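Recall that a protein's primary structure is simply its ordered list of amino acids. Everything else, from secondary elements to tertiary packing, is in principle encoded there. The following example makes that idea concrete.
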Amino acid sequence: MASKEIMDMLNQAIALELQVSIQYMWQHVTIPGINSESIGGIFKKIAIVEMKHAEAIAERLDYLGGALTTKPAPIEVGKTTKEMLEMDKKAEEGAIKFYKEIIALAAKEGDVVTRKLFEDILSSEEDHHNQFSTLLEG
C-alpha cells in the first residue's frame, strides 16, 4: 500500500487545509474596513473550499490506513486587510510547493488516486493564490 512518507505528507496536508479553512473563515468574520463585505465574502468562499480539501485528503488517508490528525498548522489571522491577504498568499504558495512534492511522490509510488487528488487540489490552490495576488494589486 502507501509508504509511511506519503501518509505523513497527507497528514501534513490535512493540517494545512484545516489551518487555512479556520484562518480564512476568521478573516471573513474579522476583516475591517470598507472592503470587508466583498473581500470577506471571498475569504468565506475559499475557507469552505479548503475544508472540502481537508475532507477529501482525510478520506484518502483513511483509505490508505493512516491515522488522521486533528490539529491544524499554526493559524495567523492578521489585523488589516493587506496583512490578511499577504498571509493568505504566502499560505497558498507553501501549499502549492508542498502539493507538487506530494504529486511527485505519489507518481513515483504508482499511487494514481493520490496523485490525481492532489493535482485537482493544486489547481484550486493556484486559483486561490491568484485571487489573493490580484486583490493585493488593487
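The chain has one domain: 4-137. The radius of gyration is 15 Å.
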